[in-house]
Specification:
The protein is of the alpha+beta class. It has one domain. The protein is 34% helix and 30% strand. Strands 1, 2, 3, 4, 5, 6, 7 and 8 form an eight-stranded antiparallel sheet that branches. It is globular.
């Protein structure tokens, strides 16, 4: 688990809210504070979908960021910057399984709850904390360190400038 700071705030928030670069991530939860507060629980309400739609969506329990990105943008846009916002993003199941396989870890996919990015904006600063959640004691921090490295590589590949805190 490492913490990072977005060095170019406008570019980072533009990528997050106005591009598709983060769309494949799952949204676990979000909160926004502007003139009002908005909380979003990213859990998919499976009973809202038809059986056909649910099958199309696959096994994910959370919505993709791309499904709510425009709603989130509408919540924060305006003449003033938001007071604060917080997002918890998780790598989708397919990418998690692939990342785990590439990592060489002894852990099985069912032992890894997720690879996370916690983003928090407050006082004109955007911070990102990377993290891995596992259901068993891993014995070392190798997988976490690989996710930290992948975080930096992914963000840089998106053209985003970050620094480690």
């Amino acid at each position: 688990m490492k913490a990072y700071k977005a060095e170019e705030l406008r570019a980072f928030t533009g990528a997050l809210f106005r591009s598709e670069r983060f769309d494949a991530f799952l949204l676990c939860e979000a909160s926004f504070r502007t003139a009002f507060s908005l909380e979003i629980d990213g859990r998919r309400n499976k009973d809202w979908y038809s059986a056909e739609e649910e099958q199309e969506l696959g096994p994910e329990d959370f919505v993709r960021w791309g499904e709510v990105r425009e709603l989130a943008f509408q919540a924060i846009r305006g003449k003033k910057a938001p007071k604060a916002f917080r997002l918890v993003l998780r790598l989708n199941r397919q990418e998690s399984t692939a990342f785990l396989a590439e990592s060489g870890s002894r852990l099985r996919p069912e032992e890894v709850s997720g690879f996370y990015w916690n983003l928090q904006y407050e006082e004109k600063t955007l911070r990102l904390v990377s993290g891995v959640s596992v259901t068993v004691f891993p014995g070392d921090k190798a997988l976490e360190q690989l996710w930290d490295q992948a975080t930096v590589a992914r963000l840089r590949a998106m053209g985003l400038v970050i620094s480690e805190l």
